[in-house]
């Protein structure tokens, strides 16, 4: 994926101030992404209201990053309760989905809840879809402990059958259509979807506190989609995406998906199409097979860490002396910092790769089959991390794969290496070179 199109996720960490998990963190701001041609028939998709439901927030994230809206308008909030996602918790300060009826200003989630309420009440919004992962499999009649009316997995939820509004007020009819569509594409018969009407107005005190019921009371068509926690991540995401796509079809929203909707392809996108860049792409770091610890990673001496993730579920948290790259519930890697002054240097670097001369920019990732040769630059020092033949200079010579120690690679397969450039004691930039694409 081209990281340049995802600058909406750019984040800046101030080393001395935002030591997130070392302090009492009240909340992380959620991302708000508008897609398509904005109109008054907008779909609002929400994921991550509970941080222990990865199918929900991962599906919403894929809508934000891997779908193009060709006709109509979609708003996506993939990480509503971002702190709970990082903490792998249903809610560090209580269940956020029970805070929409009344909430003290002293509650740590207050600002987040008030902010999402404003989006829900926006005039443009005509349909709201809140994504969840639920226990077991919902069935109208008791079958066993995992398939019963008390379970929430694999169902479309409405608070009531109808709502007196201009558009999409036939809530149960719409959810029935969504369920029917999903059930034509089941992975297995056990996964069959059903409509669950909570009939909240009849006295369900817990459901009265939820986001969807708040939306209903503000004249918005609101639905929840649940995928079962009995399913693996890619299967949960599969069913969420099927539901989202059918809601878009109902609203006349046209879209283009950048992958095949199969569990195999969904897993590939989730696990491998992930990157992060630093300092306006002076450094790029692919994360699909990144090592758990990267030592001596350059970080600006002034304490700022600017980074642009390819996905809104990514962030970097400082803990102790290390920076931890988070992706949803996962901790992908730790960066052991090498604090150094960064300088601006826009020059291309000439590198001959398998006999072909190329001009390479800082932040690029390049690949060789056999060898590479870095042309000397008078005022730049080059450090090929992992080069074992230190009796030779690291420029002006052919360096072969066997001369790089795998343990110094940035990836677990031992194929991708850092080439760092310095001007005096200052850091100019980094290029990554791999031997297997």
TrEMBL record:
All residue ranges annotated as the D,L-carboxypeptidase peptidase domain in the record: 39-270
Domain of life (superkingdom): Bacteria
Coiled coil: none
Residue ranges annotated for the Metallo-carboxypeptidase C-terminal domain, each copy included: 347-435
Native source organism of the sequence: Poseidonibacter parvus
Protein name: Deacylase
Pfam families hit by this protein: Peptidase_M99 (PF17033), Peptidase_M99_C (PF17129)
């Amino acid at each position: 994926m081209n990281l340049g199109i995802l600058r909406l996720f750019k984040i800046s960490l101030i080393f001395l101030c935002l030591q997130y998990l070392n302090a009492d963190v009240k909340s992380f701001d959620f991302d708000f992404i508008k897609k398509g041609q904005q109109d008054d028939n907008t779909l609002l998709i929400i994921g991550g209201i509970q941080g222990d439901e990865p199918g929900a927030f991962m599906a919403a994230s894929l809508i934000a990053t891997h779908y193009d809206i060709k006709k109509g308008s979609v708003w996506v909030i993939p990480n509503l309760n971002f702190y709970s996602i990082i903490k792998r918790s249903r809610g560090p300060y209580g269940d956020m989905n029970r805070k929409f009826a009344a909430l003290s200003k002293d509650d740590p989630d207050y600002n987040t809840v008030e902010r999402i309420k404003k989006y829900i009440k926006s005039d443009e919004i005509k349909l709201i879809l809140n994504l969840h992962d639920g226990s077991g499999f919902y069935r109208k009649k008791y079958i066993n402990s995992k398939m019963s009316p008390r379970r929430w997995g694999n169902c479309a939820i409405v608070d009531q059958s109808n709502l007196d509004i201009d558009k999409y007020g036939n809530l149960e009819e719409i959810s029935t259509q969504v369920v029917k569509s999903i059930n034509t594409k089941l992975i297995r018969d056990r996964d069959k979807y059903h409509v669950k009407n909570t009939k909240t107005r009849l006295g369900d005190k817990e459901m009265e506190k939820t986001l969807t019921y708040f939306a209903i009371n503000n004249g918005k068509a609101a639905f929840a989609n649940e995928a079962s926690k009995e399913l693996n991540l890619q299967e949960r995401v599969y069913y969420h995406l099927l539901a989202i796509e059918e809601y878009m079809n109902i609203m006349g929203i046209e879209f283009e998906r950048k992958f095949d909707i199969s569990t195999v392809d969904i897993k590939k996108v989730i696990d491998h199409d992930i990157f992060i860049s630093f300092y306006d792409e002076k450094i790029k770091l692919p994360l699909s097979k990144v090592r758990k610890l990267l030592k001596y990673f350059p970080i600006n001496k002034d304490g700022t860490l600017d980074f642009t993730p390819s996905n809104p579920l990514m962030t970097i948290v400082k803990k102790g002396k290390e920076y931890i790259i988070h992706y949803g519930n996962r901790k992908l890697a730790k960066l052991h910092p090498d604090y150094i002054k960064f300088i601006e240097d826009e020059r291309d670097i000439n590198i001959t790769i398998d006999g072909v001369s190329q001009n390479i920019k800082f932040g690029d990732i390049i690949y060789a089959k056999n060898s590479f040769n870095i042309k000397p630059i008078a005022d730049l020092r080059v450090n090929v991390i992992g080069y074992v033949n230190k009796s030779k200079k690291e420029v002006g010579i052919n360096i072969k794969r066997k001369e790089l120690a795998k343990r110094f690679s940035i990836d677990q397969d031992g194929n991708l290496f850092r080439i760092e450039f310095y001007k005096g004691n200052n850091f100019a930039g980094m290029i990554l070179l791999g031997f297997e694409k």
